[in-house]
Amino acid sequence: MSQDPDFQLFTSLRYDPILLQSPINIQSWPLSSPAPSPFYMLPYHRDRLLQAATHFNWPSAISSISGPSGFENLLHHLTTTIDTQSSTPLRIRVLLSHTGTLTIESNPVPAVPLSNLFPTRLPPPTTSPPPQPTVSALTGGALTLGPTDHLPGDPDLSNPWPIIPDPARTQPSSYTLYKTTSRSMYNIARERAGIKEMAEKKEVLIISEKEGEIMEGSLTSVFFWREGKWRTPGVESGGQVGTTRRWAIERGLCTEGVVKVESLTEGEECWVSNGVRGFIFGKVQLPPS
Predict the structure, then answer these.
(1) DSSP-derived 3-state class of residue 125
(2) Which of 94, 116, 208, 211 would be a feasible disulfide site paired with 155, CB 3.0-4.6 Å?
(3) How many other CB atoms are there within 10 angstroms of residue 184's CB atom?
(4) Are residues 238 and 170 in the same domain?
């Protein structure tokens, strides 16, 4: 008899009443005539759980969240566990066992602007060269935005997070490609970076043994400005297909490609994102040479 797995699958997402104002948040729902929802990018979270359950070949878990009925099952667990009348934003952790059991955990998180959850763009670094003048749909026909120009739908650029490359290297595996409770490699990297609390406004970059390719952040997807556009590491580098990362790719906010740790520069502007905090401005902080 095969031994039961000693881990669960999970995804972390945001509950926030501000999302009731966002039609974008329910554009990908697999249900007809969806009502506004306070759960951030919920279909993408269901999809990532399903992809992981399929990878690990957990038939009961696959059945519990597959198709419209599986999505409704997930939504039912959320709405019967979370007080959807509450005005307090929450970090929700959805765990899925190999038997198909869903467990919901939650804790309060700080408020963030809607523009950080669904930005119209990720502003280019202020150090990037100005573009050639062209007509831009974003400005109603004005010349292309410069690197220091700001749009109403832009995410907050204040208080950038320090983004620290891990000095050690991590071996890509199923546990880096899919989100599971087996997270020792992430926890140890956070300890090396001096990150003590989950809510600390700092991130560490996970670096692959494969030629120093950046995989992801310990809790985030990552975006770096390369060749005139934002680039996020591809799954070939060993990191996860994060929910906000998937949304940014589909919206044309970034492209996929290799980013090596050796290409980072001190103070380099970048973005990180996840399903709880949305998109967060950061600056690379290299270790003392």
Answers:
(1) coil
(2) 116
(3) 8
(4) yes
Domain that residue 194 falls in = 156-284
Distance CA 54, CA 56 (A): 5
The closest of 44, 47, 23 to 35, measured between CA atoms, is 23
**Which amino acid appears at position 25 of this protein?**
N
Residues 201 and 276 grouped into a single domain: yes
Of 118, 110, 102, nearest in space to 70 by CA: 102
Q: What is the pLDDT of residues 184-205, one digit of tens each?
A: 999 999 999 999 998 999 999 9
Q: Quick check: is 138 in a domain?
A: no
Q: How far apart are CA 204 and CA 60, in angstroms?
A: 35
Local structure of 243: helix, strand or coil:
helix
Q: Which amino acid belongs to residue 220?
A: T
Last residue within a domain, chosen from 70, 88, 108: 108
Backbone angles phi, psi at 17, to 5 degrees: -60, -25
58 and 168 co-located in one domain = no
pTM equals 0.91
CB 177 within 8 Å of CB 238: yes
**Residue 288: pLDDT band by 50, 70, 90 thresholds?**
confident
